[in-house]
Task: structure prediction
Amino acid sequence: MHRIMTFVCILFITGCTGIAEGIKPVPELDIEKYQGKWYEIARLDHRFERGMSSVTANYTLKPDGYVEVINRGYVNEENNWKQAIGKAKFVGDKPNGHLKVSFFGPFYGSYVIFELDKENYQYAYVTSYNKDYLWLLSRTPFVSEQRLTHFIATATRYGFDTDALIFMTHNDTKTP
Result:
């Protein structure tokens, strides 16, 4: 019985750091170039960001090799800012677009960059271990119509529910 419970626990923990079917992480990721502030442009709804606007993520490489992650957003209903601080690291020994991130102690979730502006690191398409999670991130609070159209077409091709996308508003007057 102990073996079965151990196997189930391992399966549960590693299952959240897997990759959604048909998704391939970008083969190389320069984490130093990926550092900094990213604006959320679009996402599929999930409980961690429900009701938020002006959502950003800030990534900082730390000396121990981990990446500090600070997610922040304005909770409209509560009229205040909330943030979560976590850490991320590469899954495996190659610096590709598959990382695992934790905001809750030893529990990690998958962070899979499957499309990226590899030259200038100006946009990223991100998902998790399944296709219930999807984000379009940008270095600026707005993207071109062409970029948005490409994101939606790419996400549709991979089987994401693009009809359920939430498009972010970034209001500069809501400064903490």
Q: What stands out?
A: Residues 2-15 form the longest helix (14 residues).
